[in-house]
Amino acid sequence: MPEPSQPSHAVPSSIAAAQAAHLLLGVHCDIVWSTKTFGQFDADQPSWRAFTGQTEAELLGRGWINALHPDDRNLPYVMPTHLTTVFETEYRLRHVSGAYRNVIVRMLPVRAPDGSVLEWLGSHCDVTQQRQTEQRLRLAMQGGRMGTWEIDLGSGSMAGSDAFKANLGLPPASHIDYAQLTGAMLDGDLQHWQTVVHAAIASAGDFEIDLRVRWPDGSLHWTHMRGTCASDGAGNVIALSGISLDLTASKQNEETLRLTLAAGEVATWNWDIVADRVTADSNMARLFPVNADAATAAPLARYLEIIHPDDREQVSAQIAEALHAHTPFEASYRVSAGDDDGDGDGEYRSVIARGRAEYAPDGTPLQLPGVLLDITRQKQVEDALRRSEERYRTLIELMDQAFCVIEMLYDEQGRPIDFRYLEGNPAFVKQSGLENAIGKTIRSFVPDHDQHWFDLYDQVVKTGEPVRYENEAVAMERWFEVFAARLGGPGSRLLTVLFSDISERKRSEQQLRQLADNLSEMDRRKTEFLATLAHELRNPLAPIRNGLQIMRLAADKPATVARVRDVMERQVNQMVHLVNDLLDVARITRGQIELKLERTDLKTIIASAVETSMPLIEAGRHQLQVQLDEQALPLEADPTRLAQVLGNLLNNAAKYTPAGGHIALRAGRDGNEALIEVKDSGVGIPAESITTVFDMFTQVGQNMGRAQGGLGIGLSLVRRLAELHGGSATAASPGAGLGSTFSVRLPLLKEATTAATAPAAAVNTASGSHFRVLVVDDNIDAADTLAAVLDMMGHVTQVAHDGAQALAVTPQFLPDVIFLDIGLPGMNGYDVARALRQLPAGAKVVLVALTGWGAENDRSQSSAAGFDHHLTKPANLLAIGELLATLSTPKTPTDHD
Q1: How far apart are CA 283 and CA 289, in angstroms?
Q2: Are 803 and 826 in contact (CB under 8 A)?
């Protein structure tokens, strides 16, 4: 940019001049801008945005000041008055990279013909590199004790910087002249100075020279002088100027080095590249056994021949690369100890060679001086150490166990409070779960790490005795097996630690213990269940057996037989109820139970359950209170199963409430659910039993000596059937003797069914038609009793006890209906059904399957085999009568027709 005093800085007086200035500044400056208001941007400045990264919204107004360094924002940016030249200042501006850059700001007004300011035109130039260079130069001169000097040849006067005076031992305030300079030089060095300076003046060239000078205190110092000549217009040299450096310390170091080289296994050498001659000191001759005549000047090839054959080519390449790239030369290789025959099998010494080439002005390499260090013993130690470390490292890295070195940390009272990881193997992260832990402390990862770990490691550090330890790190949620030993002698705070994460093993052990406990509990429950089952089945069998004997002895007493028959029927129904409960549990457990869902109202189901349970409630002289919500409680449910749920709860309440107790049944809407509660004033449930009351084979009151019979599966059925309906079942009790509350929640239909479901018409079990019925069952008593009942209903029956007999009887008997057991020996019921369908007499017969399995897949399997109907054992006589009543007139007249 032109100087401020030059005419080019005059203020432009037209818009055209401003535009020309704007274009010119854009070529030379980093930012060019214009604004109509001094100190503010009133329009977007693209180059400002590109340099600072500010958005247009951020720079407008005085927002541009936010891009300045905070220390520079308080400068007085006031509009200058009567500005006739460029206004200039300098501050630091934040660059888009985030760094602050030094910029020089120049601006001037663009005036109208009447002298008013139309706009301000300005520019910013980045001078960061220039300022950094100036700073580096100042630091270099200060740090290197570099002085500057000037000599006027005409007057003989001389001037020098404080550093130059210091190089001569003079104080900064002293006067310096040429006579003082030459007077400080030693005689031999003075003559050398005069020769060099006169030659430089004669050629108007540069010069440099090392001189010894005597300081005023008498001490001897070295100084390096480098200068150049200044000439007038006619080419006459009129002045000298240059720099000076104090070389005393450098010269002293060189002498120390020379003495060190002489005493140590270090050699110096120099390769004259042009003449291809290597000269070396005596140490070099010892390391490279060249012959005595050639030791002072041998070609490089002679030295290369002594290098180990495997290293020779690499060393030659490294020399060539250093010369070509103008970089320092360094190489490690082996040299013959003098007894090698060239095959590489002799004894060798390990050396390191270093050097730096010197070049002619045209870049031609002239010589390569350097040093050679004999590192044979060091190399041997390093090789042995490396082999040991490799074995150690390989072993550590291949281990599945984690390995680490830790440093114990203590507080001011000497208590162990933390430790730092210094080293770890690859298995460390897997076993500890800590990533990037080296150099960090355990508390930086786990602030609440258990104190017992610090105490254990402190014991090992202080006693030096290794320890094997197994314990839990609670805060890390892991278990560890640890072997720790002190690393180093007494006073060392370092430990080597081998450890494994045994959390999975501990969990497995805990699971095994829990499994053993569970199996023990299950075994106990199984034993109790079997004993209970035997008891519950024995109870009805005794009156049945007695009843049979009474009927045999009192056959001529109809009233007695009728009373005994009623007793036997109740006991048989009790056994059927027990067996049905067991079958229901088995079906639910295997997922084979099928709900027959239909739209129904909960109140209807409750009425049915209450009616069924009333005999038991009345037998206990209990007061039953039923409270139902006035709103409809529509469900999509299996009414039979829900009646079973509520019946079980009411029966439980009746059984476990002392005579004359209170039972309350409430049902209402709770949000989108129906809430049913059965509350009693009975024996209650201890707190420890609440969680198991719905478990299989658990009986309320059993542990309190108040068991009331049953298998302990009723409540389990309650919960499972409720869950199958999408609901839940829970129990609550204040404690033993304080009653219980059982709650069932069921999802309500979103829209209530408006049409009432008409009750099903009663089926006439005494059909007017009579059939020929074949009963096939390998259980002789079951077959005969069913045939006897069918005979009493007016049907003609015949019995077969296996599949072959059934196939033989069918063509002669010509049955209308066959009740066929599935579980026949040999040929099962499915096979018999298929065979019957192949017979003319069995093609149209009505086949009814009798089986203990009633799931949907069982029914599908019987249908596929050719059965028309499927009844689950024990078949209810009412169900058999209803089935026969739905059949059409028999194809074969019976004796009853």
Answers
A1: 10
A2: yes
Strand extents, DSSP E, 474-613 = 478-487, 494-501, 598-601
Kindly give the pairing relationship between strand 869-872 and strand 846-851: parallel
HEC string of 837-879 equals HHCHHHCCCEEEEEECCCCHHHHHHHHHHCCCEEEECCCCHHH
**Does the structure show a pLDDT above 60 at 592?**
no
C-alpha angle 837-839-844 in degrees, rounded to nearest 5? 55
Dihedral angle computed from the Cα positions of residues 521, 526, 531 and 532, in that order, rounded to the nearest 10 degrees: 90
Q: How many angstroms separate the CA atoms of 854 and 871, rounded? A: 8
DSSP state of 107: E
SS3 state at 188: helix
Q: Residue 273: what are its φ and ψ, rounded to 5°?
A: -70, -40
pLDDT, tens only, 141-197: 665 568 889 999 888 899 988 888 888 999 988 988 988 899 999 988 999 999 999
Whole-Å CA distances, 417 to 443, 517, 522: 9, 40, 48
Confidence of residue 207 (pLDDT cuts 50, 70, 90): very high
pTM comes to 0.35
CA distances from 665 to 603, 606, 714 (A): 11, 9, 18
Provide DSSP, 683-752. S---GGGGGGTTSTT--TTGGGT---SS-S-HHHHHHHHHHHTT-EEEEE-SSTTS-EEEEEEEEPPSS-
pLDDT score at 765: 39
**How would you list the strands of the sheet with 673-680, edge to edge?**
623-628, 662-670, 673-680, 740-747, 728-732
- Here the tokens at position 730 are 């829970």
CA angle 823, 825, 828 (to 5 degrees): 55
Report the alpha-carbon angle 332-334-340, nearest 5. 170
Count Cα neighbours of 638 within 13 Å in the Cβ-side half-sphere. 15
633 close to 672: Cβ distance less than 8 angstroms: no
SS3 332: strand
Give pLDDT, residue 753.
42
HSE, side-chain direction, 13 A CA sphere, residue 585: 17
